[in-house]
Write a structure and sequence with these properties.
Largest sheet: none
Strand content: under 5%
Number of helices: 9
Radius of gyration: 20 Å
Order of helices and strands: HHHHHHHHH
CATH topology of the largest domain: Tetracycline Repressor, domain 2
Number of domains: 2
CATH superfamily of the largest domain: Tetracycline Repressor, domain 2
CATH architecture of the largest domain: Orthogonal Bundle
Number of strands: 0
Structural class: mainly alpha
Helix content: 55-70%
Distance between the termini: 70 Å
Shape: elongated
Amino acid sequence: MPYRRTPAVQARLDDRRRDLLDAARALLADEGYAGCTVAAVAARARIATGSVYRHFPSKSVLAVELFRSVVTTEVDAVSAAARRPADPAEGVAAAAETFARRALRRPRLAYALLAEPVDPAVEAERLVFRRAFRDVLAARVAEGTASGRLPAQDPRLTAAGLVGACAEALIGPLSGAPTAYAPGPPTAEPPTGDPHAADPHTPARLAAFTRRALGAPRADDP
């Protein structure tokens, strides 16, 4: 008769797997993918390195699952922001602003998700990530064009362009911002004078850019 794990044994294994993912998530936020070695994850979780392989057969498998778990949280946050305003254009703008604010609060993590060199398996997941954001935006753009609130346009093409533009606009600040930014009054220039530093006004400016790209600018846009 093949061995079957008891519920108690399975629960302990599930807990250990969650502990490993939590440790990997903390390392990702502090050091990026380069710091997420199997040995570092094991040390952060306070277990033997060999024990990690009982749950994840390779660093690549661990990195893919880690990426999925982190990205799911980000997509959920952006999706909730996109649904909140009644106006479709404001929903898309809110999604772009939320994406940027969350990225700038945890720049090392966001840079890892967006641009850090990674294994091919994680790069494939990165494409899935971008498409998930595209689909969130495309749904609201389609709503706006169907109702006549937005000019006629291809919702998926517009959404893909917005996702790419937001990511590109953030990569410089994220790569040059080792610590999270503190929300404060808008500034004309980044606080440090560094052109790659995180400017607290960036999320609002991306929201304004999004409205203009959709054909729905607002008079008080910065």
